[in-house]
Amino acid sequence: MDNGKTITTIDTATGQAAPAELSTARVKDIFSQIARKYERFNAVSSFGAYRRWLDGMMRQAPIRPEHDVLDIAGGTGDVSRWVARAFHPRHIQLTDLVPEMLEVARIHFARGGFDGVPVDFDVVDAQNIPYADESYDVITMAYGIRNMPDRPRALAEMYRVLKPGGALVCLEFSTPPNPVWRTLDRFYLRHLIPFWGGLITGDKSGFVYLAKSIQAFPDQRGLARLMEEAGFHDIAWKNYTGGIAAVHVALK
Q: Average pLDDT of the chain?
């Protein structure tokens, strides 16, 4: 309880009930500090696997050239750049909670990294999306929903702004179904993620949070249930690297 009101949001590091401000402030602080080194961390800490995950995300994404795409928690623009090169959609709205992450994405755009696709940038909290109902054909999101303290509200907002027949394509860390893979993943999260994070960015504590948030996040079926509760249907997912990561596709 909080001042007599029931808390429905969570601490994304533990999955336990907590005021939303706790996780939101933490995420802003961590990612504002590491924005310019975030891409290097992804490349090194995943041993390059993140590129295979993004390639898989593109293979599953039902994006066409005439589509308007909303990239939620788009950060430094990795997903949007992959989308631009793979599909050349009509327009990409690239959003993130952290302005410093978007500044890196703008640098990529200025250097031609989006293959000529029109892109707009906007600081957006996905739990309160400032766009009209049924505005977008496809929503992409990578490593975003895990950092949101009110996941049902965020997914409901994504459902709202999607056009009928539209799709949410979500890449997120998940739970390997094989016990050997799970053991390796837990070791990696506990020891290597903080090590690489501290070495590359100088902020080991931020990556301790990252590891904890992954461990506290629902598995593949749990995320699919959250999507279904938000109204999505025909939800399917594909595992990558033994289920360390998974791409969910959900339709409106």
A: 91
Query: Into how many domains does the chain fold?
Result: 1
Amino acid found at 52: R
- Phi, psi of 10, deg, nearest 5: -130, 165
What is the pLDDT at residue 2? Answer: 42
Task: Flag whether 155 is in a domain.
Answer: yes
The whole-angstrom separation of Cα 70 and Cα 247 is: 17
Amino acid at 215: Q
Report the pLDDT value the prediction gives residue 1, as an integer from 0 to 100.
Answer: 39
Question: Are 151 and 180 spatial neighbours (Cβ–Cβ below 8 Å)?
Answer: no
Residue 6 belongs to a domain: no
pTM here is 0.93
The pLDDT tens digits for 40-76 are 877 777 778 889 999 999 999 999 999 999 999 999 9
- 15 in a structural domain: no
Look at residue 219 and tell me if it is in a domain.
Answer: yes
Query: Could you tell me the CATH number of the domain that includes residue 209?
Result: 3.40.50.150
Q: Which domain holds residue 194?
A: 20-251
H runs (alpha helix) in the chain: 20-34, 38-45, 49-60, 78-87, 99-110, 151-161, 179-187, 193-201, 204-216, 220-229
Q: C-alpha distances in angstroms, 241 versus 33, 60, 145, 204, 218?
A: 29, 16, 20, 24, 17
Residue in the structure block whose two tokens are 């500090």: 33
Rounded to whole angstroms, how far apart are CA atoms 69 and 66?
Answer: 10
**Share of residues in the chain with pLDDT > 90 (%):** 73
